[in-house]
Design brief:
This protein is of the alpha+beta class. The chain has four helices and four strands.
């Protein structure tokens, strides 16, 4: 695989490559915008486990922008909800209640 160009990788491999590229510079903050989008479910779970490991073992701060609540609930420690650019709710992930979801996140 090391001889393949990034654009030749599958849709699931490209996000993994992007995360790997970002980690090479040893950042203190990693911003991930829907890292599981377009990726097969078993790979999404692996990405989530890597995120947790980076947080717990390496002390990396990860800002996860995610629409899939099960993924966010499983791998995030805290949440913030923005509405029209304003933060309207923020708490530990356990504080993400059904009421907040209905009020701000349902269509």
């Amino acid at each position: 695989m090391k001889h393949r160009r990034g654009g030749d990788l599958s849709g699931g491999q490209q996000p993994q490559l992007a995360i790997g590229r970002a980690l090479v510079i040893e950042p203190r903050l990693l911003i991930l915008d829907e890292p599981g989008e377009g990726v097969q479910p078993n790979i999404v779970a692996q990405i989530g486990e890597v995120i947790r490991r980076l947080i717990e073992e390496d002390g990396l701060t990860v800002l996860l922008v995610e629409q899939k609540l099960p993924f966010a609930r499983k791998y995030a420690d805290r949440f913030a909800i923005l509405d029209r650019g304003r933060r309207v709710a923020e708490d530990e992930i356990s504080g993400l209640t059904d009421g907040l979801i209905r009020k701000y996140l349902t269509v």
